[in-house]
Design brief:
It is built from 20 helices and 13 strands. β1 (28-30) and β2 form a beta hairpin. Among the domains are: 4-92, 2-Layer Sandwich (Gyrase A, domain 2), CATH 3.30.1360.70; 169-263, no CATH class. With 592 residues, it is an alpha/beta fold. α2 (43-53) crosses α3 (60-71). The protein binds arginine. Arginine binds next to loops.
């Protein structure tokens, strides 16, 4: 099923081709001047440019007239007007708009096309075991989840992997700190190699205490730091008791993280991490050596990845530190080996803080050098930081990192205040009211995050995010809930949806907005830019609002066919809004 724009584009492309011009001249787009006409074709200027290159002196307005003469009379075209140097303004017929509306209404995906399926891994979340989740992890989770849902909606087969940070110094900190607290545990007995208890010696609360304690001490006490480093090295070399402890730390952390991410509507298919690929490292390093890619430098093992045309210096990949320890580069490379073997994806997307851009450039180059992947199979999708009012990455009042659950509580409180102000849901029982406040709070946070261009920073302003007016999550929730209530009312009045017939301008505008869904999805997914979808959803909600003001649906006196048509339009709008919000990872309450 073609969109309105595509139908027009086919007509214009054929007209240009018949005149001996390339098809691309027939490109149609949404107009910059929607007050004049909803669509425009600027191909006459392009065509004139082509003739000019051949030494002719064409008049683009004449070309436009010829095209207009050819397209005039097409069933989708109501009026064509030539403006300025040769722009063609296009207004579609109401019957074409109605057809398209019925097409969208009859489509499960409300007008979105399904694409050739690729196998895509999205590496996002990236929480570190036992370290508190910070704001960087929040954005990664929100954006990554949205991209996963977007690509899935388009028909791709997408696997989300949390890629836990579970192989670094924090493990050494935990081990040594636990040893100080409970030296008698069997895990610290070097001679013991098996038969460790199945039950974890620590809870999440323990981990949350042990890590900061150790890290704090190590900052001022070099000896304490050395112990943690040594424990990390021993763990990586395979000391059995430490490995057994690591398993417990990971299991306990995953259970807590599942809850934390789950509360935000973020779900992973794979809960792998750095430790999971440790066993692949020796062979990988041997492979690099055999290929002659890895070399020794200053006692460390490196891969040079600089290229001649680099504008800035790209330092080598560090495979092994002088101490023999594996590094962040190493585990990411081993993860690429693992993913190739286990999944063989067409593409891997890394949704990670922009500040790690260099790291990924280095890792990708090494993977290309080794011949594992093509350059365009791996992409780092960086993002900016969520900042405080001072313009620096957001901190709590005492300068600490805001925990994810505290952040969600803060959003829920702010949403609750807004609901009270607006008098929304105040007669519902406490449980439902709190559920709504929570949904509104999360919607506010996610939408505020996703509507920004991914790479820009933004300021955390909960009061603004939770406002019911403006381009906000709550505004969109309210729009959907309002349609839901119209549908409930229609049901109680026994009004049923029927074929859509468009007559009013506000109806046309709404259909034009719905028609743009597929384009928004395509653009958002090719650029990995959720803000484009946010823009679209907001546009649909706004146009619905205008439609609802101008076009009564259920009032007495509206003729039954018109009621049925408008009800269908409302219902279709709701379905598209819900698809859109679902992709953004935003849950809607039934009523508010
Ligand atoms: N754990 C890392 C951090 O906190 C993020 C991991 C991102 N993914 C990756 N494959 N390196 O910075």
């Amino acid at each position: 099923m073609s969109t309105l724009l595509e139908t027009l584009e086919i007509a214009f492309s054929e007209a240009f081709e018949a005149l001996g011009f390339p098809k691309a001249c027939g490109t149609v787009r949404e107009s910059d001047r929607p007050d004049l006409a909803p669509f425009q074709c600027n191909g006459a200027m392009m065509a004139a440019g082509i003739l000019k290159k051949k030494g002719e002196t064409p008049n683009p307005r004449n070309i436009a007239s010829q095209v207009v003469a050819a397209v005039q009379g097409h069933p989708a075209v109501a009026t064509l007007e030539i403006a300025g140097p040769g722009f063609i303004n296009i207004t579609p017929t109401l019957s074409e708009v109605s057809d398209r509306a019925n097409g969208i209404a009859g489509d499960i995906k409300t007008g979105a096309t399904t694409h050739i399926s690729q196998k895509i891994i999205i590496d996002y979340g990236g929480a570190n075991v036992a370290k508190p989740m910070h704001v960087g992890h929040l954005r990664s989770a929100v954006i990554g989840e949205c991209l996963k849902r977007l690509l899935r909606f388009q028909g791709h087969s997408v696997i989300g992997d949390v890629h836990l940070g579970d192989w670094g110094l924090q493990m050494g900190h935990l081990i040594t700190e636990l040893e100080d607290e409970q030296p008698g545990l069997p895990y610290f007995d070097v001679s013991k190699t098996e038969g460790f208890p199945k039950k974890s010696p620590v809870t999440m609360e323990d981990l949350a205490r042990l890590y900061p304690n150790a890290s704090h001490k190590a900052k001022t006490d070099p000896q304490r730091m050395t112990r943690s480093r040594e424990a990390t090295a021993e763990l990586q070399q395979g000391r059995a008791g430490y490995r057994a402890l690591l398993e417990h730390f990971i299991t306990v952390s995953i259970a807590a993280l599942k809850q934390g991410y789950g509360a935000m509507g973020v779900e992973f298919d794979l809960w792998k991490g750095e430790a999971a690929v440790d066993a692949l490292i020796p062979d990988m390093i041997q492979g690099f050596k055999d290929q002659g890619i890895a070399e020794e430098s200053d006692g460390a093992l490196i891969i040079r990845v600089a290229r001649e045309d680099d504008k800035a210096e790209i330092p080598p990949v560090m495979l092994l530190a002088r101490s023999g320890a594996v590094l962040y580069h190493t585990t990411d490379l081993a993860t690429l080996v693992d993913r190739k073997a286990e999944i063989d994806p067409d593409k891997i997307l890394y949704v990670v803080d922009q500040r790690q851009a260099l790291h990924f450039t280095q890792v990708f180059r090494a993977a290309v050098k080794a011949g594992w992947y093509d350059e365009d199979q791996m992409e780092h999708l960086g993002f900016g930081t969520m900042n405080g009012k001072d313009g620096k990455p957001f901190k709590t009042r005492d300068g600490g990192v805001l925990r994810l659950d505290d952040l969600l509580d803060l959003m829920t409180d702010s949403a609750n205040t807004r609901l009270i102000e607006a008098g929304i849901g105040q007669d519902f029982d406490e449980t439902e009211r709190m559920d709504i406040a929570r949904k509104v709070g999360i919607a506010a946070l996610k939408f505020a995050d996703l509507q920004n261009q991914r790479t820009t920073n933004y300021i955390f302003e909960p009061e603004r995010f939770t406002a019911f007016e403006g381009k906000t999550g709550p505004y969109l929730l309210y729009a959907t809930v309002r349609i839901k209530s119209i549908l409930r009312k229609a049901k109680s009045l026994n009004v049923e949806a029927g074929p859509i017939t468009i007559s009013e301008p506000a109806e046309t505008q709404l259909v034009l907005a719905l028609d743009a869904f597929d384009r928004a999805l395509t653009l958002a997914s090719t650029k990995y830019a959720p803000h484009i979808l946010c823009e679209h959803i907001f546009r649909v909600a706004q146009n619905f609002s205008r439609f609802y003001t101008d076009c009564p649906i259920l009032v007495d006196g509206t003729n039954p066919a018109l009621k049925a048509s408008r009800l269908n339009l409302a219902q279709t709008t709701l379905r598209q809004l819900e698809h859109g919000l679902q992709i953004l990872g935003i849950e809607t309450p039934d009523r508010m």
